[in-house]
Amino acid sequence: MERNIITIIGSYNVGFFFKGTSLPVLGETIIGKQFIEGGGGKGSNQAIAAATFGADTRFICTLGADKYGIDALRMYREKGINIDLIRLEPCIHSGMSVIIIDDKGNNIISVVPGANLLLNEQDIDHAEELIKKSYIVGFQLENRHETVFYGMKKTKSLGVKTFLDPAPATKLPHELYPYIDIIKPNETEASILTDLQVNDIESATAAGKWFVSKGVKTAIITLGHQGSVLVTNELTKHFSALKVEAIDSTGAGDIFSGGLLASLVKDKSMEESIKYATCAAGIATTRLGVIESIPSHEEVLKIMR
Predict the structure, then answer these.
(1) 205 touches 236 (CB < 8 A)
(2) Is 28 within a domain?
């Protein structure tokens, strides 16, 4: 294990962002004001954020052997991300997502996973030596769940910490929770996973305690403008959100995750790492896009000071 190495096993989706005054309702057409095309996918976003914040980052995923997959590889090289275990699939398209954003920064998203669904258990086995060298391995739920669960169990069996950003949220098998060192759902995801109505600090604390009771070591429940709640067996603490005028919340949760992991591998405490992640995500909401909105490490430190 090397302290500064983060491995992210996850998804890539090219994102098509449409910005308008409001979100369309069923059957309605909205004339937009702005269009951006950019790389996305929860795993990819988190890997790029972690690398931007100074962590030695490795990314494992499957891409279509199309324009978007080739563009993604070029982007990872530019960001300094190790791509040795990224696999190109010739007979399927890369993951695609459409994000519609209103003037208040709210969004609706549709994702077609494409090549992401071809990431499999053999890919995890092939990555065993890389996993062994990692301080922590991050997962999400945009790939086949069987692959994700296998990867988490494999990672723990190798004595390496696991991080799960449980999105898109779905019920998890209870036997999986002891394999999770850190879980980081938002309020909607926490509600789905726990069957509790999570909408404030008190209910987020209850959800965090639920996760810990199932065997998770650390639960971080994010609450948007209400901040986040940290729950472990020894500690419960609320962290305030950064006060900003948000224009686009897309990807803020991924940037929080990348910031958290990048801070942890630099030997910072969990509390300090949550503050770092909070600042990083808060800054990102003041900008349009996901990768384009990731602040520099220096920007985050300036806000923290």
Answers:
(1) yes
(2) no
Show Cβ contacts of residue 154 under 8 Å, excluding neighbours closer than 6 positions. Answer: 124, 125, 128, 131
**Residues carrying an active site annotation:** 254
Mean pLDDT of 285-295: 86
Residue holding tokens 């090549």?
A: 115
Boundaries of domain holding 295:
5-23+33-304
Q: What is the total residue count of the chain?
A: 305
At 5-53, the pLDDT tens digits run: 999 999 999 989 899 999 999 999 999 999 988 888 999 999 999 999 9
Has residue 73 been placed in a domain? yes
Beta bridge partners of 6: 57, 136
Dist CA 16 CA 304 (whole Å): 32
In a domain, 233, yes or no: yes
- pLDDT of residue 2 exceeding 70, the answer is no
Spatial CB neighbours of 93, under 8 Å, sequence gap ≥ 6: 64, 66, 68, 112, 114, 115
Number of domains present in the structure of the chain: 1
Residue 87 backbone dihedrals phi, psi, to 5 degrees: -110, 135
Would residue 298 count as lying in a domain? yes
Instruction: Identify the band that residue 67 occupies on the pLDDT scale cut at 50, 70 and 90.
Output: very high
pLDDT, position 125:
97
Q: How far is CA 246 from the centre of its chain?
A: 19
Place of tokens 């999770």: 180
CATH, residue 206:
3.40.1190.20
Task: Choose among 72, 78, 52, 70: nearest CA to 10.
Answer: 72
Query: Whole-model pTM?
Result: 0.92
Cβ atoms of 136 and 162 closer than 8 Å: yes
CB atoms within 10 A of CB 73: 15
